[in-house]
Write a structure and sequence with these properties.
It is found in: Cell membrane; Membrane. The chain has 428 residues and is an alpha+beta fold. The chain contains ten helices and 17 strands.
């Protein structure tokens, strides 16, 4: 028993096993193998390392956006002149990354709480029975009193009177001057993994430059000041069309950075996308076109609470920050190399399938690749001093035993080389 344990440990620590290999000289199989290996190599170099940059680690940014609109609008409605500044046409006014610029509106002035007839088309009636008192209609303006107003043939409601009439949207838009408003975007990003912080006010963008520049994709791609008309144009919309009923535009600030080079090369790019609001084109068949909302300004007049209601049509702007930073890292590099080396095994599997199952002389290759063994017990093995009680008789291919010349075979099987070394260990 002690001898067996010693021999087992000796075999484990001082012997090395390696797979048996057969060299096959076959043009077709050789070409298939090299083509597969070449394809795998091209995939590793071209896709994994060059395109996907598998040798780098990645990180996304934590970002903050601040905006500021500038510009003055002018309207003259029925002889009533008015100037609109930023406090009047930007909602909300805090400078968020999502805001609305008013381009058109319907105003209802002097509303007070009382009873008045509903708007035509909202709830028509022919008698008081058609107006159920105390009920509401989803599209109505208030609570029905149960009275049918003969002059308008509509139900009377308790609401802010006079009720709003929004059937006729001003055309052309009242604030076409909004086309010349300017938008300033200030964006800061931080990549926590790489401990890098950048701002869209990059090197060379100072107060003097900002006071004069206006963003242009070719001439001034880094200028953070944008003309509203240019934003709408680059998003694919017509300004007068979207200004009439409103819409939405997305401004994408893209930070794609490679920190294997100097950090100063990490600069933003700006892209503009029309999200919705073009009734003359893709939105024509939709049930609801454009973008609008209502807000009211309340005041007291002769101790009576009143309000001015505005239905605002505007361009909603959403600023979206996208980011992806890369930097060399040994761990993803080794992972990519290791996975690539593993894929090289595909060539061996495919070639073995071709050799053993597809070629006409597949039986010959099976005999060359596999050894079939017989085991038998030798009764006098111990008397001969052998370390083992089992020996192996290896079957050789009959064509090899006869020494048949295979050099003229079209698949060159004679070039298949097999080498075997048998060792028998004796006891001391």
């Amino acid at each position: 028993m002690k001898s067996q344990i010693t021999n087992a440990l000796s075999d484990f620590f001082f012997e090395y096993e390696t797979p048996r290999q057969v060299l096959v000289r076959n043009r077709r199989v050789g070409v298939v193998c090299r083509l597969i290996q070449l394809g795998v190599l091209a995939y590793i170099i071209g896709w994994v390392f060059i395109y996907e940059k598998g040798y780098q680690s990645t990180d996304t940014a934590v970002s903050s956006v601040f905006t500021k609109m500038k510009g003055v609008g002018y309207t003259n409605v029925n002889g009533s002149e008015r100037v609109w500044d930023v406090a009047d046409y930007v909602f909300p006014p805090q400078g968020d990354s999502s805001f609305v610029v008013m381009t058109n509106y319907i105003i209802t002035e002097g509303q007070s709480m009382g009873k008045c007839p509903e708007l035509k088309g909202k709830h028509n009636c022919s008698s008081h029975a058609d107006c159920e008192g105390g009920s509401f209609k989803r599209t109505g303006h208030g609570e029905m009193t149960g009275v049918c107003v003969n002059t308008t043939k509509t139900c009377e409601v308790l609401a802010w009177c006079p009720v709003e009439d929004d059937h006729n949207i001003p055309d052309p838009p009242l604030l076409m001057s909004a086309e010349n408003y300017t938008l300033f975007i200030k964006n800061s990003v931080t990549f926590p993994l790489f401990k890098v912080t950048r701002s869209n006010l990059v090197e060379g963008i100072d107060a003097k430059y900002i006071s004069k520049c206006l963003h242009d994709p070719k001439e001034a791609p880094l200028c953070p000041i944008f003309r509203l008309g240019d934003i709408v144009k680059q998003s694919g919309f017509n300004f007068e069309t979207i200004a009439r009923e409103g819409g939405a535009i997305g401004i994408v600030v893209d930070w794609t950075c490679n920190f294997d080079v100097d950090v100063k090369h990490c600069k933003p790019t700006y892209n503009f996308h029309g999200l919705y609001g073009n009734p003359a084109e893709t939105d024509k068949a939709r049930a609801s076109v454009g973008y609008n909302f209502r807000y009211a300004k309340h005041y007291l007049e002769d101790k009576v609470q009143k309000r001015t209601l505005l239905k605002v049509f505007g361009i909603r702007i959403d600023i979206i920050v996208q980011s992806l930073a890369r930097k060399f890292d040994i761990i993803p590099t080794l992972t990519a190399i290791g996975s690539g080396v593993g894929i090289f095994g595909v060539a061996t599997v495919v070639c073995d399938l071709v050799l053993l199952y597809l070629l006409p002389k597949r039986e010959f290759y099976k005999n060359m690749k596999f050894k079939y063994t017989d085991t038998q017990v030798q009764p006098d093995s111990e008397s001969l001093g052998l370390d083992t009680s089992v020996y192996y008789t290896l079957e050789a291919n009959p064509r090899q035993v006869r020494g048949t010349d295979l050099s003229n075979d079209p698949d060159s099987e004679a070039g298949s080389i097999e080498t075997e070394v048998s060792k028998v260990r004796y006891l001391d």
